[in-house]
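User: Teach me something about this protein's shape.
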Amino acid sequence: MQKKIIRLQDCLKKYTTDQDKAIRPEETVARFREKLQGLDVEILKEVKRIDNGRLDIPVFFSICGEGAEALTGTKKQMGKGSSPIQAEASACMELAERFSLFSFKSNAENFIVGDYAQMRAAGYPVLAPSRLLQSVHDNRHDVIFVEKLLSGIPMQWTWATSLTTGLDTLIPFSWFFAINEFNGSSAGNTFEEAALQGISEVVERHVCALVSHLKIPTPVIDQASVQDPVARELLAKFAKNDIEITLHDFSLDIGISTVAAIAIDRNTFPETSEIVFTAGTTPDPEKAIIRTITEVAQLAGDFNSGSNYVASGLPKPLSMEEVRYVTESGLDTTVAQMNSLADQNIKVEVERCVAALAKDDLEVFMLDVTHPSLQIPAIYTIIPGAHFRERSMIQNVGLFAAKLLVELVEESEELEKKLAAMEQLIPDAYYLAFYRGRNLYGQGLLEAAIMAFDRALSLFPEQEDLPYIYSYKGSCLKDLGDYDAAIETLELGLAEDEERPDLYNMLGVCCYKKELYNQAIVYFHRAVELNPVSAMDYANLGVNYRKVGNRDQAVHFFTIALSLDPTIEFARQQLSEITN
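Assistant: First, the predicted structure itself:
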């Protein structure tokens, strides 16, 4: 394992039109394409503009090559900006960021494996276990309990630099990737750019999680107070198209500017557009506004294309009523009243952000994940204590330790042994019964798995985990052919969380098996509304429309499915049968 450390240098801004960068976007794109020549795998097929021009705010896709797609599990990355070249540069850097992180993660030479005791015995300076408790907001347990819980779990460890203290330390990468995934990954023209982007993303997700979960009232920003000419031009484009957009100060007391936006086109919603709710964070509030507005454009599909965006940092509202706590907070502010940490030197901005976070005991750790051949500065930022909406809100280190164990131990008998050992420390933990059920399910022991899931349900699980338990139990019943019981169980899951595409998928399958094709269509439609990139659900729609004799709709949905995933052979075969 190579010790890669991060030492930031002065980095003056050379481009400040809509984003603050060390070089112009034209140079960013040229450098990126030049770096691609040195790779032995194809990571980029093409970069193309995909907006339809209505808003006149460019949105680009970088389409992954086979190498990047296989590694990252995604087909494309999106880029945003106020100009076409900036949006193209953004799409390229998003791909570089994701490819670099997943390349780093997949290379065993970047890690050593073991638990806390083994790392200490080898003489490494290790991250304080208290930071693991802080990372999941667990105030009930102590560090001794954490180390016992993680004992024997083969975690990957690697070097990180604390920008807060300047010290290098060994951190359990497996733990943080399990709870944060790629939240915090970033790439830039320089390490300073990448560092600022990483901090900004983690802070953005942190404040958004708090505001949306706790329904915290936040000030509405007076748009007349916006001074930046690019920001004003972007707002004018929304007004020209009769699209309502409101801006909100989500900075809370962190001291780093986060601006959220809510946008709706009442002329096209809900037929061909959605309500967009998103946010952006930068040291400069004016630049945060630009970042947020271009993010709205990226997600919105020009508010007339019928596209569906995938929610991430903030939930997707189905009605304006859902966001009244934001739009009608009774609070207001101006851009001038917002805190600015802006400086001409990006390194200074990073230092100011780190200092602001330190006031809340939020320590900033960074890993250098730069790909050795691509050589575009890439960083993975970890801030223990930062919230993340897509992470469980259950503040129990045991739950996350069990999740990590299941991810790291693949052999069924070994996993059962370790789950049983963990149960000695945490008796009657519903999540251990759930993971034992999952282990049995993976072995095809469906009846035994159902018993484990029923035990988990009897141990008073947290409400947010009920849909997962019902989903797995329903899947077992479906696989056993007990479709009526499966439907009943899956509906219980929907009663707890109506926005679960997996539940709708299985309900659709059960209805198809019962020859209830029209009801199956309803379920699969909802599945693709919630997960617009689910090729299999589009294919399932095609199958069921064909069953009810609707040839045109069958062709339509088979075509969409194959455009997303050309390997779905039954969709290709049925499409061929219909059209030939």
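Now, about its shape. Residues 397-579 form a domain with the Serine Threonine Protein Phosphatase 5, Tetratricopeptide repeat fold (CATH 1.25.40.10). The CA atoms of residues 70 and 279 lie 30 Å apart. If you'd like, I can walk through any region in more detail.
User: That's plenty for now, thanks!
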